[in-house]
């Protein structure tokens, strides 16, 4: 069977697509994979913040159009980039095992972050801005867009003294260790990641044969964490305009969940996994 996978063209998107392709071919031995490269609005407009050009949907609308038209059978997404609602007729069918959930500060070698007004930190995320200012209130925040290589290049060129990136992306690109820069990881209790950070998901047409195949390779615990954390921005009706953080962990039939809507008030609780959506509602009501 041939499966056409729609993906953005960045190195990270292609690396994550390859992870899904391998998972499918390992489970279904006679599967042939065709990669369909698609340019999204978010990839084309790099000189404006996401909130100004349409929020998270700018990274997936073209991919969803390809699914609906039959140009692609499935699309691979970083789950944290998904908008609140998917297009009619489409669903998230599968999630691979979660990677490193942490955010990290990347700085040039021997130039650690300093709580000074002239230390420039690059990030376009309101959540990351809020958390870094909470820890280092004096640093200067400067917006940054582009793929991981582009951002690292701007750091090394001196445009920024530090940039905040997702650890999972660096690891998937084999860029976590370098002689050129140092990496300082943040733990979730100090620096909540974005909801669904480090989770890769596959979107497909509801009821399709590919959708069923994807379910068979989905990582159960990660999918439960994805479903739970995805409830938080939905309940808050938040897209790019609110600094929402969330992190959950499934273990021994229970799920722990920590959330924040302002990077100041952080609430935490746990529940049986069957009660995970009520847990999300309960925590949101406490914010």
Radius of gyration: 19 Å
Structurally, the number of domains stands at 2
Helix content: 25-40%
Q: Helices and strands, in N-to-C order?
A: EHEHHHEEEEHEHEHEEHHEEEH
The number of distinct β-strands equals 13
CATH topology of the largest domain: D-Maltodextrin-Binding Protein, domain 2
Q: Ranges with pLDDT <50 over ≥5 residues?
A: none
User: Which strand order spans the largest sheet, edge to edge or round the barrel?
Assistant: 2-1-3-10-4
**Contiguous helical run count:** 10
What does this structure look like?
By secondary structure, the chain is an alpha/beta fold. It has two domains: 2-99 and 195-286, Periplasmic binding protein-like II (D-Maltodextrin-Binding Protein, domain 2), CATH 3.40.190; 103-185, D-Maltodextrin-Binding Protein, domain 2. It is 33% helix and 25% strand. A five-stranded mixed beta sheet has the order 2-1-3-10-4, sandwiched between helices. Strands 7-6-8-5-9 form a five-stranded mixed beta sheet, with helices on both faces. A three-stranded antiparallel beta sheet has the order 11-12-13, with helices on one face. Strand 1 (2-7), helix 1 (11-27) and strand 2 form a beta-alpha-beta unit. Helix 9 packs parallel to helix 10. The longest helix is centred in the N-terminal third of the chain and has 17 residues, at 11-27. It is globular, with a radius of gyration of 19 Å.
Quick description:
This protein has 287 residues and is an alpha/beta fold.
